[in-house]
C-alpha cells in the first residue's frame, strides 16, 4: 500500500487507518521463517525451498503470511501442497493450451510432479503464475524431500483434482457445451478445484498431529470450506472470467425463468447478457441466487472451524472465511460485480483478522454479516429467504452464555436446547429441495455421510431387521449424523416407571459406543436388576448389534442394566440409531428410551 493510498485512507476512513496501524504494530506475523533457528522447519537454508516460499507470495501475500505462521514444518508442507495445486490450476485456466495437450497435462500432473527436471514453458505469458510451471523442477526437489505420508496425500489430491478438471474441459471440448448446467455440477466442479484443497489440508493437519486423527473423517465439512471460498471467488470474478471465455455460473441459476418474470422479460440465454444495459435488475436477481447458493456452505464452514484445536491451524482456516463473508456482503445487490472486481478495503480485512481468533469470534463475524445481508435484502427478490447463520450462532453461542469448554480429547460437547431443536428441524425440512440438488455431487465427492445424512422418512420396516421387537416397534426418535456426534430429537413419551428418570449417554471413539444408563430414583423406589420388573434394552444400529455387557457371556441383542452399569456396542463404526426399553416381565410395554444424548 503506497503512501498516497495510506493518505487517502487516513482522510476518508480514519478509523480504518488506525486499524491498519494497530495491525502492523501488534498483529504482524510473529514467526520469521528466515531466522536460522527456523531453518530446520521452514527449509529456508535450501535455495529451492526459498524459491517455493517466493512462489507462495506470488499467489497471495495474505495467504502466504498465514501459512508461514503454522507451527513446525507443517507450514513447509502446506506451502508445497498449495503451490503444486496452483500450478495445476494455471494449466486449467490457460485457454491457449490445445485441448489434447491440456488433457494429458491435467490427468498426469501427479506423475509429472515426480519426474526430476520436468518443467512446462508453453503456458500463456498472460498467466500470472506461469513461472511456477517454468521452474517446476524447483518444486519437485522439495516435494521429494517430504516424508512419504505427506507426499502421498499431496499426489493423491493432485491426481483427483487433475482428473476432475480434465473431465470438465473434455466435456466442453467434445459436446460444445460452454456452460455448467446444474447446481450439482457446479458443486462438483468446485469440489475438484477447491473442496479437494480443504480435504488435503485436513489430512495434512491430522497426519502432522496438529489436529486430532478423527478430523480426517470430516471431509464433507472440509469440502464445504473449500466450496464456500471458491463460489465467492467465482462470483467476484464474473467479468474477468467472461472475457476469458470461462463460464462457471450454473445455468440452473442464471437461466431461471422466475428472474425474467420478476421484471417482465424472458430468462437469460447467455451469461454475457447480465452486464448489458437494461438487464441490471434481472442480473441482480441472478447474483442474489448465486450468493444464496454460496451461503449453503456457511454452516458447514462454521462446524469445521468448531472442531479445530490448534490456534495456528484455526487462524489459517478462519481468516479466509471471515474475509470472504465480508466480500460476499459487498457483492450482494451490487451491480459492480458485472463490470469489474469488488473487494473490501484493507482496513476492514485487518479488522476482521484481528477479531477472528476463536470459533465464537468467527461466529460473531458471520452473524454480523448475516444481519447486514438481511437488511440489504429486497422483498421483491425471488431468492428472499431466511438466513440460517444467525440460528447456528444462537444454537452454539446463545447470548450471555459462556463459551463451551473443550473436552479432554479436544471436542466440544454439543447440547441442544428444545427451542433451537425445533427450529433446526423446521429449517432442515425447508432445505430438502437443496439437499436433493446436492445429492449427485454428495454421492461422488464425500466418503461416508456428511452433516446432511439422515434417516428421517424411513419407517421401521425399511431398516435392517434385528429382532421381532424392533420390527413391531413404532419409531419415535429422529436422528442426524453430524461430524462424529449423534444428535437426537425425541417426542415427549410417558415413562412406564413414573418415579424413575432415565438418562443415557453415548461415549464414542474409533471402535465402540458405550451406553451408560443412570437411574435418578425417588426416595421410596429401589432398582434391583435381579427382580422380575427390571428393564431390558435393545440397541439398533445400521450395521448390526454386538453388545457386551458385564456379567453376561457373549454378544447379546438385548441386555439388562442396573444402576451405574454400562454396555458397549462394538462394531467398528457403529451407527447407533435407536435405543428401546421394555419391562422384562411384559415386553408389550415397550417404549423408546427418553433421555439426553451427549458427546463425551
UniProtKB/TrEMBL annotation:
Pfam families: SQS_PSY
One cellular component (GO) term of this entry: endoplasmic reticulum membrane
Segment forming the signal sequence: 1-17
Cofactor(s) required, per the database record: Mg(2+)
Catalytic EC class: transferase
Enzyme Commission identifier(s): 2.5.1.21
Pathway field: Terpene metabolism; lanosterol biosynthesis; lanosterol from farnesyl diphosphate: step 1/3
Keywords: Signal, Transferase
InterPro entries membership: Isoprenoid_synthase_dom_sf (IPR008949), Squ/phyt_synthse (IPR002060), Squal_synth-like (IPR006449), Squalene/phytoene_synthase_CS (IPR019845), Trans_IPPS_euk-type (IPR044844), Trans_IPPS_HH (IPR033904)
Biological process annotations from GO: ergosterol biosynthetic process; farnesyl diphosphate metabolic process
Annotated catalysed reactions: 2 (2E,6E)-farnesyl diphosphate + NADH + H(+) = squalene + 2 diphosphate + NAD(+); 2 (2E,6E)-farnesyl diphosphate + NADPH + H(+) = squalene + 2 diphosphate + NADP(+)
Domain of life: Eukaryota
GO molecular function (one): squalene synthase [NAD(P)H] activity
NCBIfam families cross-referenced by the UniProt entry: squal_synth
Family: Belongs to the phytoene/squalene synthase family.
Described purpose of this protein according to its UniProt entry: Catalyzes the condensation of 2 farnesyl pyrophosphate (FPP) moieties to form squalene.
Name of protein: Squalene synthase
Species of the source: Fibroporia radiculosa
Taxonomic path: Eukaryota, Fungi, Dikarya, Basidiomycota, Agaricomycotina
Amino acid at each position: 500500500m503506497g503512501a498516497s493510498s495510506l493518505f487517502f485512507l487516513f482522510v476518508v476512513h480514519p478509523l480504518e487507518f488506525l486499524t491498519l496501524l494497530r495491525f502492523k504494530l501488534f498483529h504482524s506475523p510473529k514467526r520469521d521463517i528466515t531466522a536460522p533457528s527456523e531453518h530446520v522447519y521452514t527449509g529456508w537454508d535450501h535455495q529451492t525451498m526459498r524459491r517455493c516460499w517466493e512462489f507462495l507470495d506470488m499467489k497471495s501475500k495474505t495467504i502466504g503470511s498465514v501459512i508461514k505462521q503454522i507451527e513446525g514444518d507443517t507450514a513447509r508442507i502446506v506451502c508445497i501442497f498449495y503451490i503444486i495445486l496452483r500450478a495445476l490450476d494455471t494449466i486449467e485456466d490457460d485457454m491457449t493450451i490445445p485441448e489434447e495437450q491440456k488433457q494429458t497435462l491435467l490427468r498426469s500432473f501427479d506423475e509429472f510432479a515426480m519426474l526430476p527436471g520436468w518443467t512446462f514453458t508453453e503456458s500463456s505469458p498472460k498467466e500470472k503464475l506461469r513461472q511456477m510451471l517454468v521452474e517446476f523442477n524447483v518444486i519437485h526437489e522439495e516435494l521429494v524431500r517430504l516424508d512419504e505420508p505427506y507426499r502421498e496425500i499431496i499426489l493423491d489430491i493432485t491426481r483427483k483434482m487433475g482428473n476432475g478438471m480434465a473431465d470438465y474441459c473434455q466435456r466442453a471440448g467434445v459436446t460444445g457445451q460452454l456452460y455448467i448446467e446444474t447446481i450439482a455440477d457446479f458443486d462438483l466442479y468446485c469440489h475438484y478445484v477447491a473442496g479437494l484443497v480443504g480435504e488435503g489440508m485436513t489430512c495434512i493437519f491430522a497426519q502432522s498431529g496438529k489436529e486430532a486423527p478423527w478430523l480426517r473423517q470430516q471431509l464433507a465439512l472440509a469440502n464445504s470450506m473449500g466450496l464456500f471460498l471458491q463460489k465467492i471467488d467465482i462470483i467476484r470474478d464474473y467479468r474477468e472470467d467472461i472475457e476469458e471465455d470461462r463460464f462457471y455460473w450454473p445455468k440452473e441459476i442464471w437461466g431461471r425463468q422466475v428472474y425474467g418474470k420478476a421484471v417482465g422479460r424472458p430468462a437469460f440465454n447467455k451469461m454475457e447478457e447480465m452486464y448489458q444495459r437494461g438487464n441490471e435488475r434481472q442480473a441482480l436477481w441472478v447474483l442474489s441466487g448465486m450468493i444464496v447458493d454460496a451461503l449453503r456452505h456457511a454452516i458447514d464452514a462454521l462446524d469445521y472451524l468448531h472442531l479445530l484445536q490448534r490456534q495456528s491451524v484455526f487462524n489459517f482456516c478462519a481468516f479466509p472465511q471471515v474475509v470472504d463473508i465480508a466480500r460476499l456482503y459487498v457483492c450482494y445487490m451490487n451491480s459492480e460485480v458485472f463490470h469489474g472486481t469488488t473487494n473490501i478495503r484493507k482496513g476492514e480485512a485487518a479488522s476482521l483478522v484481528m477479531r477472528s481468533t476463536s470459533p465464537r469470534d468467527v461466529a460473531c463475524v458471520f452473524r454480523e454479516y448475516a444481519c447486514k445481508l438481511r437488511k440489504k435484502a429486497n422483498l421483491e427478490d425471488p431468492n428472499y429467504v431466511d438466513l440460517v447463520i444467525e440460528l447456528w450462532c444462537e444454537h452454539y453461542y446463545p447470548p450471555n452464555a459462556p463459551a463451551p469448554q473443550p473436552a479432554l480429547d479436544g471436542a466440544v460437547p454439543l447440547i441442544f436446547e428444545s427451542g433451537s431443536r425445533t427450529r433446526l428441524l423446521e429449517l432442515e425440512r425447508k432445505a430438502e429441495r437443496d439437499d436433493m440438488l446436492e445429492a449427485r455431487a454428495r454421492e461422488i465427492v464425500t466418503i461416508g455421510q456428511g452433516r446432511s445424512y439422515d434417516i428421517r422418512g424411513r419407517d421401521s420396516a425399511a431398516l435392517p431387521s434385528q429382532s421381532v421387537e424392533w420390527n413391531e416397534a413404532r419409531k419415535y426418535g429422529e436422528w442426524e449424523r453430524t461430524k462424529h456426534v449423534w444428535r437426537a430429537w425425541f417426542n415427549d413419551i410417558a415413562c412406564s416407571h413414573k418415579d424413575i428418570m432415565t438418562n443415557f449417554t453415548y461415549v464414542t471413539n474409533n471402535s465402540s459406543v458405550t451406553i451408560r444408563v443412570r437411574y435418578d430414583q425417588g426416595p421410596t423406589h429401589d432398582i434391583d436388576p435381579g427382580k422380575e420388573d427390571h428393564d431390558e434394552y435393545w440397541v439398533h444400529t445400521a450395521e448390526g448389534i454386538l453388545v457386551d455387557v458385564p456379567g453376561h457371556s457373549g454378544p447379546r441383542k438385548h441386555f439388562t442394566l442396573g444402576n451405574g452399569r454400562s454396555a458397549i456396542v462394538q462394531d467398528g463404526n457403529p451407527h447407533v440409531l435407536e435405543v428401546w426399553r421394555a419391562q422384562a416381565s411384559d415386553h408389550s410395554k415397550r417404549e423408546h428410551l427418553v433421555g439426553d444424548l451427549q458427546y463425551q
